[in-house]
Write a structure and sequence with these properties.
There is one protein chain. By secondary structure, this protein is α/β, with parallel strands linked by helices. The chain is built from 14 helices and 18 strands. Strands 1, 2, 3, 4, 5, 15, 16, 17 and 18 form a nine-stranded mixed sheet that branches. It has a six-stranded parallel sheet with strand order 9-10-11-12-13-14. Strands 6-7-8 form a three-stranded parallel sheet.
Length: 455
Amino acid sequence: MGKTLIYNARIVGAPALPALTEGWVLVEDDRIAALGAGSPADSLRAEADTFDAAGAMLMPGLIDSHVHFREPGLTHKGTIASESAAAVLGGVTSFIEMPNTVPATTDKAAFADKLERAKGNSAANYGFMLGAADGVMTALREISGQLGDDLLPAVKLFMGTTTGGMAMPGTDQLGQMLTYCAEHRIPVVVHAEDNAIIAENTAEAIARYGSAEAVPLSEHSTIRSAEACLSCARQAIDMARESGVRLHLAHVSTAAEAALLESAAPEGKQITAETTPMYLDGEFCRPEKRTWRHKINPAVKSDAMELRRALADDRIDTIATDHAPHLPSEKGGGALKAASGAPSVQFALPVMLEYIAPEVIAAKMAANPSAIFGVMKRGKIEEGFYADLVLVEKCSRHIIADADVASPCGWTPFKGHAVYNRVAFVWVNGKIAVADGRLTGTAAGQALRFEHKQG
């Protein structure tokens, strides 16, 4: 691939440089070879192809550590190829996918199958979580022994109901899994919603409205309540403290959950947490603004401002999209019948740049996911790291529309949002995946490698 010199860029996410420093980055093959402030030396210009960033912002490629790309078994909603294309259009150069596909990723064969499906087809770098179900200890040992210790980012434990209905392992296996993950420093990611509280709220709603079909969409956040989230988050934290496992709370949606968390850098924590752009959105937190587009699990609450404060003071460590496409026809039917989930990966970055500083996004969506999951040599603009880079340009006011959507589902929860930034160019492993806002067709994604440091 040779050398490419990106210059005249405002650099964010480089530990060696203050945020928005004007500078340059030298890419050699698939790595960052050098970087610096100001103008590059003439000798560098002479030995490389040059790319004038024209004052645009250069960020590390984002790492989305919570997506549902629907392959295998749910490919009418999306595929690894289609959703990774949407990801790079949104500046996401690496993703970690959840296990609730069909079949669920709960054994070595399903895990290996996903890696094979992504190879040569993914526009972004890829990793896959193992789902915690009966047989999880066999799966952990086989993946480690036959595929390698460095391919598994985390184990996903669904303590609440989800698409695919994945059940928790039995008590004995759960205990063994927690011990194994604690010993090997493998994070356990938890979907924390209390099924008993949800079931009680559901029964009350059906009694009030007369049938499950009659329960309106507006009841979703009452049924999947803040109390359900807080109760299960407390259980998960107690479980982690008892077992010593590294716990990552997925999609934190309430201020009450955030109040349980410690303000510190993620490297120093046993318990870390993520939230999503949909929970942070100032419009979606208003109940009257929510439609079928915003029905997700956990439900969107009214805590956006409190969650933003938890990001700012480092109680919440990562932002992930929980990208989960469904066809519009699957989103009808009210609170109990409509599918939960929304496609978010393509527009999260430009939307969030309207209210979150770029250096915070670089930390919460690149450096911190890399640190928590042990992603090797990605998440920062640093010498020796892979050349996963995103150039963001200012643009005239753009109103996001369904017609902009790259995913086959053809809709976005951010329809109607005004943005003033656009993802202009994206490099994945040194290759251009997006040029002037359009896909190049390059599928340069590689399998992510993970290093879980021993405590």
